[in-house]
Amino acid sequence: MTIRIRLTLLFGLLVGSILMLFSVSVYYLYNQFREQEFQKRLVERAITTVRLRDDVGDIPAGDLPVLADEQITIYDQQGRVLFSLGKVSGRYPVTPSFLRHVSAGQTPYIRQGDRETIGVRYVSASKRVLVSVASAYDRYGFSKLERLRTILLFGWLLCLFIVAIAGYLFASDALRPVAELIDQANTISATNIHKRLHVGRQRDELADLAGTFNELLDRLEKAFVSQKSFVSHASHELRTPLTVMMGQIEVTRLQTRSTTDYETAFDALLDEVKNMIRLVNGLLELARANTGFPNLLPKYPVRLDELLWQAQSQLIHKKSDYQIDIDFDDLPNQEDDLVVMGDESLLQTAFLNLMENGCKYSPSHAVTVRLAFQPQQVQITVSDQGYGIPPQDLPNIFEPFYRSDSTMTVSGHGIGLALTKRIINIHQGTIDVESTLGQGTTFRVCLPNRVAADTSATSALVSTRDVTALPEH
Ligand code: ADP
């Protein structure tokens, strides 16, 4: 059901109920008023008749009933009928107790169907107590009441009809800006993702909604553009070594060469292939780190000191001139302080990248890794005394394929830091960098240790238990 129909129905229901309440109250109050009026008329008739009978001794023959179906009966104190006017029907509601009440000075009123009856006490000139009972049918009162009921019913139906139409128009008018927003949003697709919704000058909820939607589009556009540039960068990085290899093969094939020449050419080709494999591996790792949600990544306890030693030996095995020092600021209080929950191979890739960069971008090829322990986290700093990063490049170095112009002479593809940042982020850690041109660079990584991970897992468990412990309704 659309909001427009729902609003119309709600509006109709609300106004219809209020009008119904009003109509019922009017009808009820008018009925009470009619009843009181008619009682007064019955009392008047009862008294006039008994007084006439007492004064004149008899009712003149021409005195016809004034009220519809009128019956007036006069009784003495013993309940004997002294006089009766009108036709007495079998359902006449006067009982001895009714007469007793009247004799005692009360004015009892009875309504039986449409017939209403009232009794009055009258003391004659000769001090005789008489009871006069008047009973009749309020023809005019009831016909007016019926007319009122018809008017109220039709008036109510008419109002309901008008309210339904007015409600529908009102809801359509109120929802028109929403329909416009939907139309505008429907025109936005991948080909015109730069397009935005018109926010308007009014600062209302719909303007907020349009603003929020535009912010979402901003983020999507950014992701879209970076995705596009990622693909073009990746293709470019892959094409360059392939072009080089093709050139080398073509040049080698121009003439018959000596075995040594072929070996040299193959070595050069092998270097390019290794380079490509490194790039493809980096891209695969980046894709692996980017797929899925961090919470779905299986996490196991990883001892950071062991991980760093392994990374160190791997790197030295690859480049024997690299020098990596690992220092502990102070010893941890307990073994758990050294342990983080995560994916060992991903974490190793991250620290390998940082160590390799430190060695690669410093003439001494030396890097110092320092571990510091805090109650809930481990801090790892990787510092070198190398070329440093120009301040204008610092905000971009974590972007995929970004390479500083100052280090273009050193081989690389620009995906190591992007991958490292992503890995640290999916481990709920942070990474930041400080660098001074010509003096060196320090990368600082903070990772929550096992104690912190256990605490957050327990609190997540407690909150899940809280939810499941809620009573079912
Ligand atoms: P790559 O090293 O393959 O170029 P990275 O993503 O690891 O790619 O690094 C991106 C860029 O950041 C590098 O090209 C370099 O300019 C800069 N950089 C990273 N680490 C250092 C460092 N320790 N010293 C100086 N520059 C660095």
TrEMBL record:
GO cellular component: plasma membrane
Compartments it resides in: Membrane
Entry's transmembrane regions: 6-30, 151-171
Stretches assigned to the HAMP domain: 172-225
Enzymatic reactions: ATP + protein L-histidine = ADP + protein N-phospho-L-histidine
InterPro entries the UniProt entry points to: HAMP_dom, HATPase_C_sf, HATPase_dom, His_kinase_dom, HisK_dim/P_dom, HisK_dim/P_sf, Sig_transdc_His_kin-like_C, TCS_sensor_his_kinase
Superkingdom in the source lineage: Bacteria
EC number of the protein: 2.7.13.3
Enzyme class: transferase
Record-annotated Histidine kinase domain positions: 233-451
SMART domains assigned: HAMP, HATPase_c, HisKA
A molecular function (GO) term: phosphorelay sensor kinase activity
Keyword Transmembrane part of the UniProt annotation: yes
Keywords for this protein: Kinase, Membrane, Phosphoprotein, Transferase, Transmembrane, Transmembrane helix, Two-component regulatory system
PANTHER family, per the entry: SENSOR HISTIDINE KINASE TRCS (PTHR45436:SF5), SENSOR HISTIDINE KINASE YKOH (PTHR45436)
The protein, known as: histidine kinase
